[in-house]
Amino acid sequence: MLDHYLDALLTKPGALERSEALHQARAEGTFTTVHEAFWAAAKKALGDTEGTKAMVKVLLLHSHQQHADVVTGIRAALASGSARWTMPTA
Among 8, 34, 35, 60, which is least packed, fewest CB within 10 Å? Predict the structure, then answer.
């Protein structure tokens, strides 16, 4: 569900946190605790708006990669402390 809104969320990132789509993704388990940890770290490093845009860009990876692979990549970035906070444009 969430993937249908991601392009719009790049221009209005503040809408992500209170969106029904995010609530559903959390309930379904597709927005995992790993996603939550990445989002928190991104917001801490970049501020709320840019950190949320970074999270949306990571979520966009799910349309091209397997869910488990994206989660593994997020885990690796967080564990190594080498998450790159200058995210490429989507």
Answer: 8
Domain count, the chain: 1
Looking from the CA of 64 toward its CB, the CA atoms found within 13 Å total 6
Domain of residue 65 covers 2-80
SS (H, E, C) the chain: CHHHHHHHHHHCHHHCCCCHHHHHHHHHCCCCHHHHHHHHHHHHHHCHHHHHHHHHHHHHHHHCCCHHHHHHHHHHHHHHCCCCCCCCCC
- Is the pTM above the cut of 0.90? no
